[in-house]
Specification:
Strand order of the largest sheet: 1-9-10-5-4-6-7-3
Oligomer: single chain
Distance between the termini: 47 Å
Strand content: 25-35%
Radius of gyration: 23 Å
Length: 547
């Protein structure tokens, strides 16, 4: 692959609305396909990075519709902007964890990830670009803010005249003086996993009859799971299903939650269930974990990993600390206290963990949206979490349900659920939050739906490493008995608003560790509705998704 192309400078005008959210810029696919839309944003990224002269980039995505076209455009623009090298996944594919791994291994200046995560794909679906920094993690707030500001003043973008680049096979070529290195998207990530986990122990587990079902939902994790689980670890053939990345995810919704994956959940509650199951999201950074007859909540998963980390080779030396996003259940806090390590609370968004990871203050991190990860990269990592569970099971020789029961008996159980009220008119959602915010000063000491409020505030965060601040990160209401409700508007929707309501109840009584989660949280759900008037304001009887 060798291209000598003339560099073009194309006049343009700012396009409104190119403000990256919690996880990059997400819009409808049709929006990104508009003339100049992709180019304006990418040039703004390059300009904000201080130009690309002599720099290396990593490029790839989850395989959704428009990925290859966008990748070729970005390669053309990178060459025109003087980049030295771009490392790109074959066919434009790279999971988000694998991209973070490559950024760190190749000392890249940044990565561009073509993904809208769990949002639907296809020409009528969504597309996105996420910018990752040189540490391999999501761009910090100050960088995305500068990118947004640049989109408001851009006057021209640069690209090569010829952008017809073959991304079908690994190899190295040149484009207008820039090296284009097409890589196997799985290889480096697979090698990193082999450094962290006891592959021999996991292989023996499968050879002794252990069964797994991994649903990749026709998104990017399929090739990774097949290589690691079936080829390297000898899981039975067919253990990985929906394993081929498709432009529209085959009509599936790559969001690993009990409602979008109801067939998998039903299978795991049946007599035919395998020992472990998981479902991954679009870009591979999140995974829902299930055992036979039980679903593992994200907060419990993080807590179990922390409590058993000494069984895993990559973490047997101990944990520096742990961190969770504020809405995530506080189960890991109790594990941290027992280990004598710090537990940090951050706003939602993986980027808020990265200063702690870079400073060596934490080893494991997690969010309530089924994202967990560690210091091995600077992103959450769905398949890594599955391998971690497999390693623990291989060492402890207990089922998923038995591990959970043992954990709850030791630490108590945090019942936790997130209720999503989706596709709301923005003015309705914002008015609801504004009204609730006005109630905060007078809530403590009041009784709501039979529950006594002990504290209420709005979460503001100051980073303990760099001193940066993030305000208005969620409304928190605490009740007697260790219960709480958190209200937060989502920052990752490409359309209308999403109201997320998080419910949490702590239970130490061993006779009450096996309650139905939604039933256990029903009084809190009633209190949340009484405070915020959700049903009255939205005109709906129930949330769209419960996770």
């Amino acid at each position: 692959m060798r291209r000598r192309s003339r560099v073009l400078t194309v006049a343009t005008r700012p396009i409104a609305g190119q403000e990256p959210g919690t996880s990059g810029l997400r819009k409808t696919t049709r929006t990104f396909m508009q003339p100049g839309y992709l180019e304006n944003f990418v040039q703004s990224v390059f300009d904000t990075l201080g130009g690309l002269a002599g720099k290396t980039l990593v490029l790839g995505g989850d395989g959704r519709y428009f990925t290859l076209e966008a990748a070729r455009t970005i390669l053309s623009m990178a060459a025109a902007n003087g980049a030295r090298r771009v490392v790109v996944g074959r066919q434009g594919l790279l999971s988000t964890p694998a991209a973070s791994c490559l950024i760190r291994r190749h000392a890249a200046a940044a990565g561009l990830l073509l993904t809208a995560s769990h949002n639907p794909g296809g020409p009528e679906g969504d597309f996105g670009i996420k910018v990752n920094a040189a540490n391999g993690g999501p761009a910090p707030v100050n960088l995305t803010a500068r990118i947004h500001e640049r989109t408001k003043t851009i006057e021209a973008y640069r690209m090569t005249e010829d952008a017809d680049i073959d991304l079908g096979q690994p190899g190295t070529g040149m484009l207008a003086g820039m090296t284009v290195e097409v890589v196997d998207p799985v290889a480096d990530y697979r090698n990193l996993m082999a450094e962290l986990f006891d592959f021999d122990a996991i292989r023996a587990l499968f050879e002794n009859g252990f069964r797994i079902r991994f649903d990749a939902l026709n998104a990017v994790t399929g090739p990774y799971a097949r290589r690691l689980l079936e080829e390297d670890l000898n899981a039975p053939g067919g253990s990985v299903v929906n394993a081929v990345p498709l432009a529209d995810f085959g009509g599936l919704h790559p969001d690993p939650n009990p409602q979008t994956c109801r067939d998998l959940v039903a299978h795991m509650m049946s007599p035919q269930a395998p020992d472990l199951a998981a479902a991954a999201d679009g870009d591979g950074d999140r995974a829902m974990i299930l055992g036979r007859g039980v679903r593992v909540s994200p907060g419990d998963s993080l807590a179990v990993l922390a409590a058993n980390a000494d069984l895993v080779p990559g973490y047997e030396g101990g944990l520096a600390g742990v961190a969770r996003s504020m809405p995530t259940s506080r189960a890991v806090d109790r594990v941290a206290a027992s280990l004598g390590i710090d537990c940090h609370e951050t706003p939602t968004g993986w980027k808020f963990f990265n200063t702690l990871l870079d400073a060596g203050k934490v080893t494991l991190c997690g969010e309530e949206s089924a994202g967990t990860g560690s210091s091995h990269i600077r992103e959450k990592d769905g398949l890594w979490a599955v391998l971690f569970w497999l390693n623990i099971i291989a060492e402890r020789r207990l089922s998923v349900a038995e591990i959970l029961q043992d954990h709850w008996r030791r630490f108590g159980r945090h019942y936790h659920s997130r209720h999503d009220w989706e596709d709301l008119p923005p003015d309705v959602a914002e008015d609801l939050v504004r009204s609730l915010r006005a109630q905060i000063p007078r809530l403590p000491g009041s009784t709501v739906a039979g529950l006594t409020v002990t504290a209420a505030d709005e979460f503001h965060h100051t980073d303990p490493i760099d001193g940066s601040t993030a305000r208005n990160q969620g409304l928190r209401i605490a009740f007697e008995g260790g219960m709480r409700v958190v209200f937060r508007l989502s920052g990752t929707s490409t359309g209308r608003a999403i109201l997320r309501v998080y419910l949490e109840r702590y239970e130490a009584d061993e006779s009450r560790l096996d309650l139905d989660c939604e039933e256990a949280l029903a009084p809190l759900a009633a209190a949340a509705d009484a405070m915020a008037g959700i049903r009255t304001r939205t005109g709906r009887r129930q949330p769209d998704v419960r996770t």
